[in-house]
Amino acid sequence: MVNVGHKTPQLRKAKASGEILLQPQTLALISENKIKKGDVLTVAELAGIQAAKQTSHLILLCHPLSVTHVAVKTQLTERGVTITSEVECIGQTGVEMEALTAVSVALLTIYDMCKAVDKTMRLSDIHLVEKTKQTIKWE
Question: What amino acid positions are annotated as catalytic residues?
Fold first, then answer.
C-alpha cells in the first residue's frame, strides 16, 4: 500500500457508472418483478452499497476507509440497466475504487439474478465519472 499518513484528511467524493445490456424480454421480467430470485433492482442497489463498504477486502492494495455516504441507483433503459454510484468519506485517500466496486458488484448481481433467462447479457462502460477532494474547514 502507498503511505498516505502524511496527507491531510479531506472530504473525498467519487461517482461511477456502468451498464448491463439485456434482452427486451429480460427487461420486461425485471420491470414486472418476475425474476425468480427476487427484486433485481433493489437487490443490486443493496449489493453495490455493501461492496463499496468492503472494497479494501476485495482489492488487495486499497486502504480501508471510513465511508460516510454511499448511494447506488439503478435505471432501466431501452438497452438494459444503468447503475450509478456516489461515495463519500473524510480521509487521506480517494474513494474512486469504492465507487467503481459498487457499480461493478451491482452489475454482477443483476447478471447473477438474470442468468437463467438471458444468455446474452454484457457488462459495459464501467467508468469513473468524477472524483473530487475538498479541504475541510473545522470550526
Answer: 112
